[in-house]
């Protein structure tokens, strides 16, 4: 009797769930019909049968937008779930100005995959916690703090250039993405933790480098594997167990450094009067208006967030910048001229030079437009939102396809033409700031953008001063959008001495 009641109860519950979902499906079908929907919709697969990975999704939306000039597109993930995509500044702006949280609440939400690793740091937290921590962390990006980092970028770049020197001497082609990525991680470890652990020299044999790379690739694997969405299945799977092992290593690494720094600061607070503070010093000493500081767990979340957000992104931007130098030799010469003129006989760029590198800066901006460094971000709707005249209901996530905004025909004529002069001030004074959002915009904009631009200027400036770079004939240079824009087959270059 009891068993029978339980079965009937479960069946009734299932029926209610199905009826509710069918009702929502009807509503969603009506809505997606009001937007620009991708072609070739399949009654079971939706649009998934057209996609193997994120790059297919971006490509299909961009292709659709080129012919329709759409502002909002929709894509069906099988027959039961639509994803709306803001692909024009006007629709992206509404979301970017809102306080809607990051997409981490539904099972397949992209940010959920990195949540166990990065925790409730600035990138993933929301509401009051985010507001407080953003306030506490903003001083870490004040120019007084950023100024001494320029010397760190120079030191790190020297090690990177020595590797290029070897390739130059032996006349071998070199794949630069992996080397740039080690250099930017080295920069972040030195600037955030004052850790100098021979990261570039050891490369993948450094356990921290290996663990961070593994966590990135395992998180992506989970995004594309719906059977790993439920937590308990993920943690039981080999992928989840590998994730846990690497996450433990990364957390222990940061915990160890935080604990020993706390001891030093508590014993001798005067040591913070030194010339160079790293991010950890700021995090440990930060206090809110009630005199409350950050817990060790909060600090670890911020450190892990900086290390992840702050090295993969700049690695992508700098690698594609080197690709563009090699692809457009006339641009390389313009930058060489500017850098040598700014240096005026000195060997290294300084803080004061950063604002003088005007052409280099517009070149870097065009690189980040052409090869969108962060191709996509996403928000979760907690309440209905009208985008392009369509009211999207709550409890859905909406992607902001930065890559598509960077190539939208309404904003960027001849979008595939590489033309840094688009960004020169006199032409852009009245441009809507939401037309170009490599660092996002609005309240959740990138806190590290000045850090990133300075690092890019120093690495690119030092590179062109010492070498000429060229593309390798026959190599295929293809974009592969993931969390950041990667090259599908690496970026191979030839290096020649100046
Ligand atoms: C070229 C380099 C970089 C690019 C293109 C970039 C891009 C972005 C974008 C698009 C976002 C918004 C993410 C979202 O809404 O989900 C973001 C947020 C963030 N970025 Fe960056 N970033 C770069 C470098 C850095 C660096 C160097 C750091 C740290 C030193 C950093 C730290 C952060 C943090 C902490 C957030 C979250 C901010 C918040 O929500 O309050 N980024 N970045």
TrEMBL record:
Keyword match Transmembrane: yes
Name this polypeptide is given: Cytochrome P450 4F22
Transmembrane segments: 6-22
GO molecular function, one term: oxidoreductase activity, acting on paired donors, with incorporation or reduction of molecular oxygen
InterPro entries: Cyt_P450, Cyt_P450_CS, Cyt_P450_E_grp-I, Cyt_P450_sf, Cytochrome_P450_Monoox
PROSITE patterns named in the record: CYTOCHROME_P450 (PS00086)
Cofactor(s) the protein needs: heme
Domain of life: Eukaryota
Organism listed in the record: Magallana gigas
Residues annotated for heme binding in this entry: 446
Protein family membership: Belongs to the cytochrome P450 family.
Keyword Transmembrane helix applies: yes
Alphabetical UniProt keywords: Heme, Iron, Membrane, Metal-binding, Monooxygenase, Oxidoreductase, Transmembrane, Transmembrane helix
SUPFAM superfamilies, per the entry: Cytochrome P450 (SSF48264)
């Amino acid at each position: 009797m009891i068993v029978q009641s339980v079965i009937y109860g479960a069946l009734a519950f299932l029926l209610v769930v199905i009826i509710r979902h069918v009702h929502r499906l009807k509503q969603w079908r009506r809505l997606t019909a009001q937007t620009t929907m991708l072609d070739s919709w399949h009654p079971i697969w939706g649009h998934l049968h057209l996609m193997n990975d994120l790059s297919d999704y971006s490509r299909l939306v961009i292709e659709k937008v080129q012919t329709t000039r759409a502002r909002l597109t929709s894509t069906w993930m099988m027959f039961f779930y639509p994803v709306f995509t803001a692909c024009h500044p006007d629709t992206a702006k509404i979301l970017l100005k809102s306080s809607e949280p990051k997409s981490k609440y539904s099972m397949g939400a992209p940010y959920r995959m990195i949540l166990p690793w990065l925790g409730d740091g600035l990138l993933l937290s929301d509401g009051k916690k985010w507001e407080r921590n953003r306030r506490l962390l903003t001083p870490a990006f004040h120019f007084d703090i950023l100024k001494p980092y320029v010397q760190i970028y120079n030191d790190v770049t020297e090690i990177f250039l020595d590797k290029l020197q070897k390739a130059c001497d032996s006349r071998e082609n070199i794949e630069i993405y992996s080397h740039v990525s080690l250099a930017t991680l080295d920069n972040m470890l030195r600037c955030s933790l004052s850790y100098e652990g021979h990261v570039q020299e050891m490369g993948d044999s450094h356990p921290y480098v290996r663990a961070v790379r593994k966590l990135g690739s395992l998180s992506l694997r989970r995004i594309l594997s719906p059977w790993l969405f439920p937590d308990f299945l993920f943690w039981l799977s080999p992928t989840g167990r590998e994730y846990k092992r690497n996450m433990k290593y990364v957390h222990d690494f940061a915990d160890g450094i935080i604990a020993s720094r706390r001891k030093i600061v508590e014993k001798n607070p005067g040591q913070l009067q030194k010339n160079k503070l790293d991010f950890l010093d700021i995090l440990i000493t930060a206090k809110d208006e009630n005199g409350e500081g950050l817990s060790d767990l909060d600090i670890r979340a911020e450190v892990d967030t900086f290390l992840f957000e702050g090295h993969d992104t700049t690695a992508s931007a700098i690698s594609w910048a080197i690709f563009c130098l090699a692809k457009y030799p006339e641009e390389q010469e313009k930058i060489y001229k500017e850098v040598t003129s700014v240096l005026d006989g000195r060997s290294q760029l300084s803080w004061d030079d950063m604002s003088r590198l005007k052409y280099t800066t517009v070149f870097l901006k065009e690189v980040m437009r052409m090869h969108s460094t962060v191709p996509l971000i996403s928000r979760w709707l907690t309440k209905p939102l009208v985008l392009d005249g369509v009211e999207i209901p709550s409890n859905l996530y909406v992607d902001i396809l930065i890559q598509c905004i960077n190539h939208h025909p309404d904003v960027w004529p001849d979008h595939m033409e590489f033309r840094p002069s688009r960004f020169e001030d006199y032409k852009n004074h009245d441009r809507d700031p939401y037309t170009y959002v490599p660092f996002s915009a609005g309240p959740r904009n990138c806190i590290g953008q000045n850090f990133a631009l300075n690092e890019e200027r120093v690495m690119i400036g030092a590179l062109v001063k010492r070498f000429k770079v060229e593309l390798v004939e026959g190599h295929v240079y293809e974009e592969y959008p993931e969390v950041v824009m990667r090259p599908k087959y690496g970026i191979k270059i030839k290096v020649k001495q100046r």
